[in-house]
Structure to design on (202 residues):
């Protein structure tokens, strides 16, 4: 088995429950780390700086990006998002798996820089269910919901560029599917060439 941790890209429209899936995934596996993204959007109720996101001004965000300290960065619904690079390198070197919860723009950038990253696209059961979840959130205006649903249609078209599709019908089912993907990826021959060579030398 490979010693280096996996880099997992989780993308999907806003409201598909990616955050909840990640929390449950980590709760069941202590070797998984969540890459906290940086964003220029305002915190939602209950969000803490450094936990869900690093909340930055636009000026500070662009400074960090210019210094080459972001693995990827993108603009989504008028806000900037980015992935700090250093923690990812440190964790994967220690054999820990790292989950990135990022938009499709950012996911494409990561895949370009790290072709070994595993792309997983989280889909809602339907667009109607997605709208229901967005309304349940209670944090969006009517205009904001319409904007996110339009963005969702565009993002879902990008799902074909990901390695795997997971439908988040129930959190338990989505987590189980991602756990299966992680196990399968770690057993790929392309990730275990050193193991094969080591056995042949014995």
């Amino acid at each position: 088995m490979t010693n280096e941790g996996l880099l997992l890209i989780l993308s999907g429209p806003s409201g598909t429950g990616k955050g909840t899936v990640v929390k449950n995934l980590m709760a069941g596996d202590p070797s998984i780390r969540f890459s906290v993204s940086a964003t220029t959007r305002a915190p939602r109720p209950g969000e803490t700086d450094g936990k869900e996101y690093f909340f930055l001004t636009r000026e500070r965000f662009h400074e960090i990006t210019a210094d080459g300290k972001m693995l990827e960065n993108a603009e989504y619904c008028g806000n900037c998002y980015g992935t700090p690079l250093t923690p990812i390198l440190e964790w994967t070197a220690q054999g820990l798996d790292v989950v990135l919860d990022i938009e499709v723009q950012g996911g494409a950038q990561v895949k370009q820089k790290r072709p070994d990253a595993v792309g997983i696209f989280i889909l809602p059961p339907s667009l109607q269910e997605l709208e229901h979840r967005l309304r349940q959130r209670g944090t969006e205006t009517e205009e904001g919901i319409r904007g996110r649903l339009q963005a969702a249609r565009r993002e879902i078209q990008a799902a074909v560029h990901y390695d795997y599709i997971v439908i988040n019908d129930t959190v338990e089912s989505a987590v189980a599917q991602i756990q299966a993907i992680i196990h399968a990826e770690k057993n790929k021959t392309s990730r275990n060439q050193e193991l094969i060579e080591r056995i042949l030398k014995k």
About this structure: Residues 142-157 form the longest helix (16 residues).
